[in-house]
Amino acid sequence: MRVMRQFTEEVKHRQAEREHTLSLTHGQRYVLRELRVLFAATTDEDVKGQINILERAFRGPITTAINRELNLLRKNAVTGEPLLKNLARLFHQHNMRDWMDRRGLQLEDQPIPKIVCSEALL
């Protein structure tokens, strides 16, 4: 039971570390909220796929330049298709796909532990 408690605590610690490592900026929260609205409003699967990619990209760490652009979009209340076009432009302009690939590799380095098999002696 002691080992199980230690394992549970380790899992909780790793999950908390992942969730709280990065706090989102106001611009990121605005963009993610508007992307969710746009996702719910569209039926086009290609657009939904593009929104998913953009959401993953802008949920992670961003540079000051990108943050400035996101705050400008928020300040101007850009929504819908114009927002999607601006985010796609930022995504390509700042090579965010490369960032996502590197981030994915880093997350794979520290997977959350899962019980694959256990045995109990009674």
Helix content: over 70%
Number of domains: 1
Largest sheet: none
Q: List low-confidence stretches.
A: 105-109
Coarse structural class:
mainly alpha
Report the count of strand segments: 0
What does this structure look like?
The chain has 122 residues and is mainly α. The protein has one domain (24-109). The chain is 74% helix and 0% strand. The protein has 6 helices and no strands. The chain has helices at residues 2-20, 26-41, 45-59, 64-75, 80-93, 96-109. Helix 2 crosses helix 4, helix 2 packs across helix 5 (80-93) and helix 3 crosses helix 5. It is elongated. It starts with a helix and ends in a 13-residue tail after the last helix.
Brief description of this entry?
The protein is mainly α and 122 residues long.
Q: Topology, please?
A:
Elements: H1 2-20, H2 26-41, H3 45-59, H4 64-75, H5 80-93, H6 96-109
Helix pairs in contact: 2-3, 2-4, 2-5, 3-5, 4-5
